[in-house]
Amino acid sequence: MIRAKFPGICLLLALAAAPGLFLPGAAHAGPCPVEHVGKLGTGAWPVDGENALQADLARLHGGWFYTWQAKSGLSDPRFVPMIRSGRDLPQVFATASPVLLTFNEPDEAKQANMSVELALAYWPTLMATGKRLGSPATGTGNELGPDSWLGRFMAGAGARGYRVDFIAVHHYAQSPDIDAFRRRLERIHAAYDRPIWVTEWALADWTRPGRFSVAEQASFFRRASAMLDDLPFVERHAWFGLYEGLDGWNLHSGLVADGRLTEVGRAFVDLATCEAAPDDPE
Predict the structure, then answer these.
(1) How many Å separate Cα 174 from the centre of its chain?
(2) pLDDT the model gives residue 73
(3) Chain segment 248-270, per-residue pLDDT in tens
(4) Alpha carbon of 165 to those of 217, 241, 250: distances in Å?
(5) Which helix (H) or strand (E) holds 234?
C-alpha cells in the first residue's frame, strides 16, 4: 500500500553527521539465518530527495529496491521499475532493468483502481518490452479463487496467451504467525504455478496503525525473512517500508525514522550483511 501523496517528513540523513551509526555486519552473532541475501529488499521513495534515499539504501545493503515508479534518479542496478497505473505506460522503456513490476493494487480505489479488462488491454504493451513481468499486485486477500481480481486476471491472461512471469503478492498480517504466512504463499504458488515476489509485507492493523511495537515488527521481520529465504519459489521480497510515518501511517515498521536506523532497520542490516557459514570439512 503506497499513497498517491507523500507528506514532507523531516529526515536527518547526512551520514557524515552521524559517524559510527552502524558497522555493517558487526551486529550479527551466531549462524546466519538466511542463505540468499539477494532476495531481501524494500519499498522506498525519495521523500527527502534522491541523495538522502541513496545514502539510506547504501547503509541498508539490501539486494534490491523499488519506488512505485517507472524510473529512478539513482544510477543503481538494484532498482526495479514499476508501471504503477495506466498513466505510467509511456515510461515502459525508461530503464534497462530486465524486470518490470506492474499495476499496484488495481482493486483499490486509491491505488491503480483498474478493472481486470483494462489491465488485460494494457498487457500487450508491457509484453512488448521483453522484460520479465510481475503480475499486478492486489490488496491482501484478493488473489485466490476464480472470482478474485487476480484469479480473473490470470484466467484472462491464460485465455489470451499472455505472458506473466511471476506473481507479485502483498502480505499485511494482523498476526505474527509465520506458518500462516507460509501457507498463504504456498496456496498462491499452487494456484498459479509461478515464482513469487512478495513486494509489500509487514505487520499491519489499518484500524489501529500503532498496534504492533517496533520490537514486534523486528521479530516478525527476522523470523519471516528466514522462512521466505527457505521457500525456493519466493524469488524476492520487499519489506514495507524504508521510512516510518508516511502519509500518517505509523506502523512501527519503518527501517529509518528521523534519520536513524530503527530496530527493524538494524535487523535488516544484520540479515543483509551476514554471511552463511561454510560447510564443515568432511
Answers:
(1) 18
(2) 86
(3) 678 999 999 888 999 999 999 99
(4) 31, 24, 34
(5) strand 234-239
pLDDT in tens, 195-235: 999 999 999 998 998 899 999 999 999 999 999 999 999 99
Q: Which three cell numbers stand for residue 136?
A: 499486478
- Cell triple for residue 143? 488473489
How far is Cα 29 from Cα 61, in angstroms, rounded to an integer?
Answer: 18
Q: Which domains does the chain have, with CATH numbers?
A: 36-273 (3.20.20.80)
**Does the pLDDT value for residue 62 go beyond 90?**
yes
Q: What is the DSSP string of 117-165?
A: HHHHHHHHHHHTT-SEEBPPBPPTT-SSSTTSHHHHHHHHHHHHT----
Closest CA to 250 of 78, 32, 7: 7
**47 versus 188: which is more confidently predicted?**
188
C-alpha–C-alpha distance, residues 140 and 175, integer Å: 14
Phi, psi of 175 (to 5 degrees): -145, 140
Rounded mean pLDDT of the chain?
88
| HEC-encoded secondary structure of 85-118 | CHHHHHHCCCCCCCEEECCECCCCCCCCCCCHHH
What helix, strand, coil percent values describe the chain, rounded to 5? 35, 15, 50
pLDDT at 193 over 80: yes
Rounded Cα distance, 162 and 183, in Å: 28
Phi and psi at residue 196, in whole multiples of 5°? -125, 140
